[in-house]
Write the structure tokens for this entry.
Amino acid sequence: MRILGLVTSIFVFAATALSQNAGDQMLAAERGLSKATGELGVKPAVMQFFSDDAIIFRPDAVNSKDFWNGRDDGKAAAVRGMSAFGISSTGQIGYTTGSIEIFPNGKGAASNAYGDYVTIWGRRENDGWRAVLELVVKHEKGIQLQYKQERFERIEAESNKKGRSAADPSMNFLRASMGVGTLGSAYKSFAAEEIRFLRDGLPPITGKKRVIDATKAYRAVKFPFKVALIESGDMAYSWNPCEYNVSDEGMERGNCLHIWKLRNKKWWIVLGAFARVESDLKPQLKTKKARSK
């Protein structure tokens, strides 16, 4: 029993060391991307730091390099400010998130959008770390929440040597968001205590209780027709088109992203993001006609 405990300790220590080393490399890639978007422009930065199959949302999922190759706005720049990150125990996938400000005519001109980004990173065998997915939510610059944000200590990686998958939890979360309860009820069952939540119109919300309160008016109206799930070690991420009935405000359509972490044999959501697909149409309430007698 003592020998088994020693082997387990060495295995966990090795996984943590691997994760930390890979984390340093991923953060170096994030710094390189941030510098490139500000100094060279968004298009050259995407070509240099995004993988060939990377996905962005404009507003639906598209290949990032195909999208920017088809555009002529080479002056577009962006200023990124990372505020949080995470990485898998295997050192193969991770994420960064923070503020972003868009300057369509270069940093010397005025900006036209502000918000927060989530970049998913993947480790490529020959090319190092590359961004494989990025989602952005928009809100006004300088907007403040009416309460103090919670802060949480970083939690060390878990080895997941038994290969527990996030597939079932992610599907159960989607079903729960469509059930009798609301999206807030689903987060109550699946959110980690330190969850970070991004949605249009607001700065990031941190802490399970705050996120539950912020999402209790949302109810999913249909199961997504497409769900992508990538997992490695103790981390997974999933994204899907989503559609919500938002209390009395009507319908909202968008793209949803969730990042999962395995802790104590259970998968928890550590980051959730809902990027609304903008529409020129005002939200419409769905009403039922009364039957004539």
User: Anything to note?
Assistant: The mean pLDDT is 84. The longest strand covers residues 251-263. DSSP finds six helices and 13 strands in the chain.
